[in-house]
Design goal:
It is a single chain. This protein is mainly α. It has 2 domains: 1-82, Rna Polymerase Sigma Factor, Chain: A (Orthogonal Bundle); 87-157, Winged helix-like DNA-binding domain superfamily/Winged helix DNA-binding domain (Arc Repressor Mutant, subunit A, Orthogonal Bundle). The protein has 7 helices and no strands. It has helices at residues 3-22, 25-41, 51-76, 89-102, 106-117, 122-129, 133-156. α1 runs antiparallel to α2, α1 packs parallel to α3 and α6 (122-129) crosses α7. The radius of gyration is 17 Å and the shape is globular. The termini are far apart.
């Protein structure tokens, strides 16, 4: 499968993943575009790869680009986290989900997003993130326990 075919097929999934990192749709789309440009510049590397390996590379590149951008913005003192208020229930649910996910370390957040939100199984997630499927299940279990604890704490307030 050609790189552009993988990109066209899975672009929405990549944007959703990037959005969990950035919490802003436009920034997420920019990260995905930047990752794709990097992929195009190294396209011959992907010829021998399985599509899941290409996706894993794209996920890792998006994560690395996000980290680089975060560090750059933090260094420059230009990190803006403002969210516009809304009364739309679906947006409120998205904000609650984003808030809950922000309580997790990045490694756990990634497996929750890929497994629970996007529906991938532990084997595929492991291939995407370059870890074993048992490590995926372990991270998933730990993350779900943390989310339950946060929700329990909130219900007591």
């Amino acid at each position: 499968m050609q790189l552009y075919q993988i990109y066209e097929r899975d672009r929405a999934i990549l944007v959703r993943y990037a959005n969990t990192l950035t919490q802003h749709k436009e920034d997420a789309e920019d990260l995905v575009q930047q990752a794709y440009v990097k992929a195009i510049l190294q396209e011959e590397m992907f010829d021998a790869m399985h599509p899941n390996q290409v996706m894993a590379w794209l996920y890792q590149t998006i994560k690395n680009l996000f980290i680089d951008q975060y560090r750059k913005n933090r260094h420059m003192g230009d990190f803006d986290n403002t969210i516009e208020p809304s009364f739309d229930a679906s947006i409120d649910d998205s904000l609650i989900t984003a808030d809950l996910l922000s309580k997790l370390p990045e490694a756990q957040r990634a497996v929750i997003v890929l497994g629970v939100i996007q529906g991938f199984n532990s084997v595929v997630i492991g291939e995407m993130l370059g870890i074993s499927s048992s490590a995926v299940r372990s991270r998933m279990s730990t993350a779900l326990a943390k989310l339950r604890a946060v929700l329990d704490e909130r219900s007591l307030l």
